Amino acid sequence: MLHEQIEEYIDVSREIIKVMVSDTAAGVLKKSLERQESMIDALLETETEASQLIRALMSVEEEVAQTLLDTEETKQKSLSKLQKIEKELQDTSEKNMSLQTSIKFLQKELEDVRAMEKEIAEIHREADEDTTVVIPSALYLAKLFHNVTKIDWDYSCDSTLIKGIHYGGDIAQPISIDSTQHSKIFICDYLWSLLSTEW
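Structure (tokenized):
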């Protein structure tokens, strides 16, 4: 549009030159000046519109630039937040794997303990069956030994002494043997000699 107006202005200038060399110069000159004035007004109006358009364009560019900056800032914040979430997720995954490993280890330990409990329960059951059927209780053996030998032993004496009281005869007979002074065979024979052979 501006180019066309410049060409028109050049045409008007040529017309002015033609008028200046012709007879009717005053009328044509006046007409040309009016036309030139009209063109200048059109040029000024175009310039004003162009200035307004440039200002509007610059305002739009500023808004776009600000929007772009805001968008970039939001993007950076979002990326930072995403990285933080990814780090937390990775840490949580590692903790989860560690916990799963610990749980598997503890489950295996628990299974081992349960297996050992079953084995111990089986051993106790077998031991209970064996002691009730095959091996008499210690209390039963002590009573049986006392009934057979009729001896009350003194367990509070020195370990080198064999002391007690034999109730097998008409009167109670004390026993006091120093095991360091006599052989085991002698001690055994002596104790067997105290037992009654009458049943």
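Helices lie at 2-21, 25-133, 138-149, 184-194. The chain has a mean pLDDT of 80.
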